[in-house]
Structures are given as structure tokens and as C-alpha cells.
Amino acid sequence: MRIYFATNRRHIEDRSPPFGDRYNAEGPAIYRVGFAEVTKVADQIHAPDDGFVINSVHVAPEAPAATRGGEELLGSHAIFDELTRKSRAQKRNVIVYIHGFNSSFQTAIQRAAQLHDLWLDGDKEPLVFAFSWPADGGDGLGFGQNGETAHKWKYFSDRDDAESSGKAIARSLRRLLDYLMELRKQDIATQAEPCEQCLHLVAHSMGNWALRHALLSLRTLISGARLPKIFTNAFLMAADEDADALEHKHKLGLLPQLADAVHVYHSKRDLALLISDTTKLNPDRLGSWGPRIVDGLDSNIYGIDCAAVSETAEWKHGRHQYYRLRPEVIADVRQVIAGRAPDEIAGRKPIRPGRLYRIEPAT
């Protein structure tokens, strides 16, 4: 399978994979794009990270205008062209994925490959475009649960890196917006049929903190204008964000402008977020309790309680990886992607019909 990516990690040509755990040498706002060829090697349907092997990584060439007679070479154009051709010809949706804390470039690609493998629309695999920001990587929860000072500081390091990466994510989204606008002009000019495939956004864990700062930077890049609605669904998975984040425009409150619907999957049993809440002096977490309120929020924001289906096989996941490891959650997401109405999704119990739901364990 081919996983597309953008990353503001430092490019190290003689390394495999060729990206490290620090920023691009030119600064955190600079990113490169490309794709990785990945093979699934595990037989089980819910393979762990090492069930996917990265065979090769291609970094799209780029060159400034000064070296090309005034014409800039943009790697993103080639990647977006390929995604568009495949999406239209094969009628496949596109998922934009922002990973969480404590993740290497390799882990980010492997988990994107899991979404490619499991988050189907009917029998169609999505095309996955992952943005990998320079989280430190490593084993365990990364929240300092074993009391080691170095691990506790890693959390804050990743949080700072996620925030600083917001501008790079915003720049890549702006490039995508420009591309889609130009594509629409071409379709109108040639009287081509509009593309019916969907773009979905998923942010996991601290990726939601990076998403907050991407939204704020994107608003600046478009001069404060209302954000264009380009995503059909935004999935906020185990969000390491404030429980009131969707209430405020300086947090995640801009997201409903960008997506038709926002789905907040949360679990009060999430050990990683419990530690974030109690030992890092953070407010209540969105990924623990869901939205603090729903009255007054956009009507397209939904809360999905995953507490009963958050347990996974590996203890080190801390009930934080259910979005890619629990069959009930994967089945729920697939029904959302297929366009089923919130009250009609099998496996859910309505808590407040039209707004809040709970996923029940499979019998």
C-alpha cells in the first residue's frame, strides 16, 4: 500500500526512514512531502505497529524559483495530482491523519497504514495522507507513568513540538486549499463532473493540540476569513485537548468551519489522558469526558463515549489506542464514513439523541 505524507521533521538522506525527531533544518514551519510504500505482514486483522513494514520512502523533489528561472517546483503538486487521479478513478475517499505524542516517523506511517487497512468505505480502502510532526518517539505512554523525570519532560517537549508544528500543518492545508480551488476552476472550464469522493480528517491524542494551532495559523494565512469547508468528517480521537476546546475560537472552535461534522470519541478510562489531567496540571481532557457542553455548540458536533470499548491487548497503550484497535470503534467510524445518520449507527446507544452516544461492547 502507498501512504502519502507531509512532515516538518528533519530530512536525513542517509537514514532509513529518512526523517529524524527534530524540526526541518530550515525551521518548524517548513515541510516536505512524499509517499511510503508499506507492506502488511501480520495475519491478524488488527495488527500492531510492527505488523506493517516500510519498504521505501520517496521524498518529492522541490526547488526554489531562483534555481528554475522563476518557476518554483512544489513537491505537493505532484502528490496532490496523484491523490486526485486515484481518488477519482478508483472512487476512494482521502483521510488526512495527524498522529499523537511519542511517535516516530516510522510509527506515524505504520498507524496511517492501519487506517488504510481498516477505515473502509464499504469495501473501498481510503487513500491516507499523514502529517508527521517531530514527536520524540519511544516506548510506553510517554507521560512519565513510571516516575522517571526524563519521561515527564518528554511530554512537555512533545507538546511544544506539536504547537510549533501548527504553522507547518496550516501551510500544507493552505496548499491543499489552493490546489482544490484550482482543480474546481479546471472542472468548471472543462465541464467535468465534480468529484464525489470525500476528504476526512482524523487527529489522535496530542495531534489535536497540533490541530488547534494549525487552525489558528490557517486563519492567519487566509487573512482572518472564514475557513472553507473541505472535510466531510473530522474525527477527534482521544483528544489531549481541553474539554471546552470546541467552545472557543482560540482553541478548536474554528473546526466546524472546516468540516461538515465533528465527532469526538472519548473515554474516561483513558489512562494516558488521566495522567495528563492529574500530573501535568492540564484541565479536564476532551478525550476523557467529551465536550464540556453541547448546548450552544454547532449542531454538527457529536460526542461518542468509548469507555466500554477502550481496553486493548497491550497494557502500554493505556486504553488510548482504541480508535485503531477496537473492532467496535472501527465499525462505528466506518458507518460514519459511509454516511449513516448518527441515530442509525449500529452498536451505539443514544445518551442524548442527535448529540451524544455510547458505543456498546460487541457480544
How would the blueprint of this fold be written?
Blueprint: E1 2-7, E2 9-11, E3 19-23, E4 32-40, E5 52-59, H1 75-90, E6 94-98, H2 105-118, E7 127-132, H3 149-164, H4 166-190, E8 199-204, H5 207-221, E9 231-237, H6 255-258, E10 259-266, H7 271-279, H8 286-289, E11 301-305, H9 322-325, H10 327-337, E12 348-352, E13 356-359
Parallel strand pairs: 1-7, 6-7, 6-8, 8-9, 9-10, 10-11, 11-13
Antiparallel strand pairs: 1-4, 2-3, 4-5, 12-13
Helix pairs in contact: 3-5, 4-5
Protein name: Alpha/beta fold hydrolase
Pfam family, one: DUF900
Keywords: Hydrolase
| Counted beta strands | 13
The CATH superfamily appears as Alpha/Beta hydrolase fold, catalytic domain
SSE string = EEEEEHEHEHHEHEHEHHEHHEE
Shape: globular
Sheet of most strands: 11 strands, mixed
Cα Rg: 19 Å
Structural class: alpha/beta
Strand content: 15-25%
Q: Strands of the biggest beta sheet: in what spatial order?
A: 5-4-1-7-6-8-9-10-11-13-12
CATH architecture: 3-Layer(aba) Sandwich
Low-confidence stretches: 138-150
SS element count, helices: 10
How much helical structure, as a percent, in the residues?
A: 25-40%
Please give the alpha-carbon distance between the first and last residues: 32 Å
CATH class equals Alpha Beta
In round numbers, the mean pLDDT is 88
Q: Supply the number of structural domains.
A: 1
CATH level 3 topology: Rossmann fold
